[in-house]
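Sequence only, no structure available. Ideas?
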Amino acid sequence: MIKICICCDRSIKDGEQYTEVDKMSPSAAGATLYQHTKPCRPVPVQTTQVSLRH
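Reply:
I predicted one. Tokens follow.
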């Protein structure tokens, strides 16, 4: 099973330390999310819309 960090969106490799975060949902089954234990760089978030090229 591949574990993806919810902060940096990169895979967690064998031997790396990580924390499991349980996300509960009232309308569906919950999920287990993973995050690196060491601080990682968050993924940049796009704040403006890119115009489509035709």
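Residues 2 and 11 are 7 Å apart (CA to CA).
Hope that gets you unstuck.
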